[in-house]
Structure formats: structure tokens, C-alpha cells
Write a structure and sequence with these properties.
Helices cover 41% and strands 19% of the residues. The protein is an alpha+beta fold. The chain folds into two domains: 82 residues, no CATH class; 115 residues, Chitinase A, domain 3 (Roll). The longest helix is centred in the middle third of the chain and has 34 residues. It starts with a helix and ends with a strand.
């Protein structure tokens, strides 16, 4: 699981926490006790400095308690009595990750519900029975593509917070695809367009990447916003 994986990587990068001072005031004392008399001393110290700085940054980012982490690490490293067995610690980390993921998913679901409820009340926004919402930015003309048609489009994709996660415009090249081979929101939304049209598609997660998400940017249960311009219907089958 991704969160546990990051935790394990972090733990492997935390060997220097044993020697890391809790306060800057004790740094000189700790440093004065170390004598770099050999290459082994120096590489050990260098690794401690590198991993210590990385560990401190990660701990602060995660909001963990440094003193508790250092105590547990020292106890486990030097064979002192610990409050959790390694097996239970791993179990706890898995459960912590599972709960964290569930909480994040629920937040995204709630954000989507609130967004779509408010968005459908905006002037010009149309909602279909599936839950797809769209707005006509520019009308086109001609035939509408069928779900089995291949089309050429330019597009940009955004998350609800405005993060752009994909753009054919930035790449400088439109894409071609069959409407039957994309997410449901695209299949339905592009089928409502005529060549030359530009729509904004508001796609709920059920019509997007669902509970799986896509890559590292589109998280599970993410609603998507696409600016789509239908350039051409390439073929009709």
C-alpha cells in the first residue's frame, strides 16, 4: 500500500535519528563527541547528516512527534523494551494507512457532492441523467459523433482544486481516439458535441476513473473537469 510503502522508505532513511540532537543547542555537544579519525568514521557521519536532515523534514511534513519517534527507534535499535512488537507495529501502520485512505476518499466524495450540487445551479450548466454536467463554451456544426466513432480533440483536464493534470494543448498535438475506449464521461460528453464545438465537461468520479483513480495525480473518487474542443470526426463505424 502506498502510504505504508512511504513509511517503510522513511524508516530506512532514518538511521541517523539515533544521533540527531533534539535541539540546536545540543548540536555542538554531540558533534564535539565525534572524532572523524578514519574513512569509516567519516562515511558514517556523512550518512547520519544526510539521513538526519531527510528524516527531520519528513517527520515535520507528516506531523509526527519527533521525541516519540526517536525514543521508539532507539529502543528498537538497541534492544530495549518496546511498547509494540515489530509485527504489531506493521499491523498498526497498515491500519493507519487504511483509515487515512478511507478518510481522504470520504473527503473527496463530499467535495464532489457539494461541487456538483452548486454547479448545476449555474447559468448555462446542463446535467444529464447520468450525473454528467456540461457547459457549451462554443457551438459547433454538423453531425454528432456516435459512441463507436473515432474523433480528434484538443483538451485540458483539471481537478476540482484547479490542478491541471493533462493537456494536449501543452503538448502541442491533438489526440485521436474511439469514443468507446475512453472514460464514460468522455463517451457521453463528446457525443453531445459537433465539430468545432468547445465544451466544459464536469465529470463525477463514477463516470471518470472511479475508485481506482489514475496515476499519482488523479486520486480515487476524484471528480474531473475537462475543457474539450472537438476538431474532427475521423471515422464512423
Amino acid at each position: 500500500m502506498k502510504y505504508l510503502g512511504s513509511l517503510v522508505v522513511f524508516l530506512l532513511l532514518s538511521l541517523s535519528v539515533v544521533a540527531a540532537p533534539k535541539k540546536k543547542a545540543t548540536a555542538k555537544t554531540a558533534t564535539n563527541k565525534v572524532v572523524l579519525a578514519s574513512a569509516l568514521d567519516s562515511v558514517s557521519y556523512a550518512m547520519g547528516v544526510f539521513m538526519g536532515s531527510q528524516s527531520a523534514s519528513h517527520i515535520e511534513k507528516q506531523g509526527w512527534k519527533k521525541d516519540v519517534f526517536v525514543q521508539a527507534y532507539n529502543d528498537a535499535l538497541f534492544g530495549a523494551e518496546v511498547l509494540m512488537t515489530p509485527d504489531y507495529a506493521q499491523f498498526y501502520l497498515n491500519e493507519y494507512e487504511r483509515n487515512l485512505v478511507q478518510q481522504e476518499n470520504e473527503v473527496r466524495k463530499q467535495q464532489q457532492a457539494e461541487f456538483f450540487e452548486a454547479n448545476k445551479k449555474r447559468s448555462g450548466v446542463i446535467e444529464t441523467p447520468s450525473g454528467l454536467q456540461y457547459q457549451v463554451v462554443k457551438a459547433g456544426e454538423g453531425a454528432f459523433p456516435a459512441p463507436t466513432d473515432k474523433v480528434k480533440v484538443h483538451y485540458e483536464g483539471f481537478l476540482l482544486d484547479g490542478t491541471k493534470f493533462d493537456s494536449s494543448i501543452d503538448r502541442g498535438k491533438p489526440i485521436e481516439f474511439s469514443l468507446s475506449r475512453v472514460i464514460k464521461g468522455w463517451t457521453e460528453g463528446v457525443a453531445l458535441m459537433q465539430p468545432g464545438a468547445k465544451y466544459t465537461l464536469y465529470i463525477p468520479y463514477q463516470l471518470g476513473y472511479g475508485a481506482q483513480g489514475a496515476g499519482n495525480v488523479v486520486k480515487p473518487y476524484s471528480a474531473l473537469i475537462f475543457e474539450v474542443e472537438l476538431l474532427e470526426i475521423i471515422s464512423t463505424k
